[in-house]
Amino acid sequence: MHKDQPLIFELSKPGRIGYSLPALDVPAIDVAQVIPTDYIRTEAPELPEVSELDIMRHYTALSKRNHGVDSGFYPLGSCTMKYNPKINENVARFAGFAHIHPLQPEETVQGALELMYDLQEHLKEITGMDAVTLQPAAGAHGEWTGLMMIRAYHEANGDYNRTKVIVPDTAHGTNPASATVAGFETVTVKSTEEGLVDLDDLRRVVGSDTAALMLTNPNTLGLFEENILEMAEIVHAAGGKLYYDGANLNAVLSKARPGDMGFDVVHLNLHKTFTGPHGGGGPGSGPVGVKADLIPFLPKPTVEKGENGYYFDYDRPQAIGRVKPFYGNFGINVRAYTYIRSMGPDGLKAVTEYAVLNANYMMRRLAEYYDLPYNRHCKHEFVLSGKRQKKLGVRTLDIAKRLLDFGYHPPTIYFPLIVEECMMIEPTETESKETLDAFIDAMIQIAKEAEETPEIVQEAPHTTVVRRLDETTAARKPILRYQK
Amino acid sequence: MLHRYLPMTEEDKQQMLQTIGVQSIDELFSDIPESVRFRGEYNMKPAKSEPELMKELMALAAKNADTKTYCSFLGAGVYDHYIPTIVDHVISRSEFYTAYTPYQPEISQGELQAIFEFQTMICELTGMDVANSSMYDGGTALAEAALLSAAHTKKKKVLLSNAVHPEYRDVVKTYAKGPGLEVVEIPHKNGVTDVDALQKEMDEDVACVIVQYPNFFGQIEPLKDLEPIAHAHQGMFVVASNPLALGVLTPPGQFGADIVVGDAQPFGIPAQFGGPHCGYFAVKSALMRKIPGRLVGQTTDEEGRRGFVLTLQAREQHIRRDKATSNICSNQALNALAASVAMTALGKNGVKEMATMNIQKAHYAKEAFVNHGFDVVFPGPFFNEFVVRMNKPAAEVNKKLLEKGIIGGYDLGREYPELQNCMLIAVTELRTKEEIDTLVKELGDCHA
Fold first, then answer.
1. Which one, A319, A415, B7, B100, has the greatest CB density within 10 A?
2. B86-341, what's its fold?
3. Bridge partners of A188?
4. CB contact at 8 A, B156 and B180
5. What is the torsional sign of CA B308, B314, B317, B321?
6. Nearest Cβ partner for B347 among A17, A128, A224
7. Which residue of A has its CA nearest to B358?
8. Are strands B279-283 and B130-131 parallel, antiparallel or unpaired?
9. Confidence of residue B315 (pLDDT cuts 50, 70, 90)
10. Best of A33, A80, A93, A101 to disrupt the B interface by mutation (most B CBs within 10 Å)?
11. From CA B115, how far away is CA B102, in angstroms rounded?
């Protein structure tokens, strides 16, 4: 095995340090005097012993082996990989935001509470909901929070038989997983050939055991569910609630609000539409908005505005409880707030318009070279199928890997599950026409390669720091930590 | 509209509309029925320019009393520790912070390797076999540990020490409602889990026993005595642990813990009003294929180079959907990176030295309180927190301290009726002798 890039442990040398602790200004008591022997560690943890420069070089080297939005185009469908504004990072690091303790007296954190309250107000306006909690830490956490509230709502009505949550076959995997964690069974509703929820199938699966229908709108195919009001009617008539997965909110800012579409609960991914960076997989933030009848069930505490300033309200007897220690991922909420205030109402409207313009432009230009399963205006993203290329022996996975050679992060692939050899492309509004054109050119070239020199695509990537990795062995004989 | 984040020019727009074959952008929204179309304008504050917004938000931040200006003795799960300067420099490299989850390993080796190193460090500190790539925070990690225990043992009862962080307990109880678990709280006795009470509640239906080490009061739970009880009926032994304390304390893995969780906030992560922090989740190898969240594994590429991938994904929501072991998707990757950098900077020696310094400073403070006639409530060994009884509610005392530029300890009366007027005081390596002496002096007439 070649080890091109050492692990930090492999750089370790006894006797080196990378820290600078304050001098001890109290008596240097021996730990053994105050801690029983059985509870004193006898073997030190094998952590690295390296200098500060060693550390900087190591992580700088690692960063160069990583692709972020700042490195290049990242059209990863449903992930909204837009530019992460730098002002957000500065604001989140202000001492008054970064270095405040969650249990400080309320009068010492009025600025933080004001920001949270105002962010909630903005999110209410954007979603058309009546109240918002910032407590959930990420989208999936928001989904589960919303479902727990729906469960509490039904139970408060003495309705204990609503055991099922309906999700479309195009839904993200977290939807059914969240339903399970919240104690529900998942029922799948089919999509039509047009890529929308099949109303007849919805009527068939909905019933007195329906707790909720979870929906993304636009859906994961990038298509707006035109029959949304009828769907809401079907679900509401059966006594169920309508849940909005806000993963795709970038498509409808200022164009349509979940609250006006009949949704009762909404979660947002502030790390998508509202530019909290993805951080290599987190932290995110997943606020949840609700209509008035669900307000009593919001997790506690809520942030309220009173005569003497802002405060936390813990006196909420019907609350589902806490979903997270403290009040959510405040640092991410600060970034989202900064973004919203940087854009204003006009800016947010333009965000969606350009996101949709970019997606439609790419879709139309690529439709000649790849199969377009749903030929209609898309919203912020669209799906292509690699069926044509598959016949030539080139899989969508190969196309994705070939894109790496051009310096691009590939689209989301093999999702949604209902599209064969699926590629889900979301350009976002922060990309220029030049960037879109260059990516389109690369995709066209790959389509040609698939016909003329398929092995170039099949063997890709050729230029990355590692070639394709053996994932099978990784799973069969897992090595999950370094050992000397 | 012109905006620095929106590069499209009028000319671009016209060309693109032409390619699409529509007259206007509005046409692209024709599929949204008029009945749900939002035609107004958001009723919100107008946009501000960068310098104006910076100024406004700086003023808003200044309304808060931050712990860089005030001297803080508040801990209770979130601590004011030394953060090596390089931590922020590393996590500010935008190749890390503007990346998504490393689903394309060939261009994500940096993130994947960093997480693999994080997993290793957590295993080293906790004495466990496998650690995942992070959870949201210590509280939700603990709740997931309860769920995993129940799923693995097929039992429904959770015995939860009430010396576990109150907010962690609240989160466990919320999560428990999903699968219908019964959560029974075990009282504390003298600040540690009451062994007799635990013994009494223990039976064949118990999925897990949950304790915290050091616990919410800073006390060192007798894991050695608790473990045999937890395992008496094939239940799981779950320990929530401050990873910094494990620089000095015997790791829970050595006491036979099956699952160890906690929050890596003490390593390089600022308080940030409670989040984002960084949950960790570590298990014995028997639970490897049931652990929630992402795992990074080592492998090789086609040419024999070492590389890293997300692995054992058959546990996860994007593959298993409703059969997944958890719904977690986004985690706290960037904070796991921050914690890794801090753990690396501190290293083998620094983690021990910093943990030891916490013990030394906290014990100096405790002695100072005792010498001034205060009642230090619990007699057992502790890490960097201890409980002091006052003659009035801690909230009242804290008001007075604030005037002196001090953020006082946590008011235990909020959550523990038997601890009215008691304050939980945290002393980290950053508190100086002078600050400690000032605290005791300012509280001089408050002893019970």
1. B100
2. Aspartate Aminotransferase; domain 2 (3.40.640)
3. A167
4. yes
5. positive
6. A17
7. A24
8. antiparallel
9. confident
10. A101
11. 10
Class of domain A87-342: alpha beta
Binding-face residues of B in 53-112 toward A, CB within 8 A: 53-54, 56-58, 60-70, 72, 74, 76-78, 80, 82, 84, 86, 88-90, 92-102, 104-111
Which residues, 6 or more positions from B55, have their beta carbon under 8 angstroms from its beta carbon? none
Alpha-carbon torsion, ordered B84, B90, B94, B97, to 10 deg: -70
Report helix, strand and coil shares of chain B as percent, to nearest 5: 45, 20, 35
> How close B110 comes to chain A (CA, Å)?
4
For tokens 């005030």, name the residue: B70
CA-CA distance, A195 to A201, in Å (whole number)? 13
How far apart CA A353 and CA B24 sit, in angstroms, is 10
Q: Does A414 touch chain B (CB under 8 A)?
A: no
A80 in Cβ contact with A412 (< 8 Å): no
Higher pLDDT, B96 or B445: B96
Q: Which residues contact A129 (CB under 8 A, 6 or more apart)?
A: A123, A258, A259, A263, A266, A289, A290, A291
pLDDT in tens, B284-307: 999 999 999 999 999 999 999 999
At B83 the pLDDT is 98
State how far the Cα of B199 lies from the Cα of B186, in Å rounded to an integer: 10
Q: How far apart are CA B261 and CA B128, in angstroms?
A: 10
Interface touch B299/A125, C-beta < 8 Å: no
- B318 to chain A: which residues are within 8 Å by CB? 172-174, 415
Sign of the dihedral through C-alpha B11, B14, B16, B19: negative
CATH 3.90.1150.10 for domain B71-82+348-446, yes or no, is yes
Domain boundaries, chain A: 8-64, 87-342
User: B369: distance to nearest CA of chain A, Å?
Assistant: 14
Residue B293 CA from chain centroid, whole number: 15
pTM, two decimals, is: 0.98
Contact flag B46-A345 (C-beta cutoff 8 Å): yes
The CA distance from A133 to A123, in Å, is 10
Sequence ranges of the domains in chain B: 71-82+348-446, 86-341
Mark the ranges of chain A whose per-residue pLDDT is less than 50: none
User: Looking at this protein, which amino acid is placed at residue A188?
Assistant: T
Q: Is A225 on the interface with B (CB under 8 A)?
A: no
ipTM, two decimals? 0.98
Q: B403 in contact with A at a CB cutoff of 8 Å? A: no
User: Is the pLDDT assigned to residue B323 strictly greater than 90?
Assistant: no
d(C-alpha A132, C-alpha A209), whole Å: 27
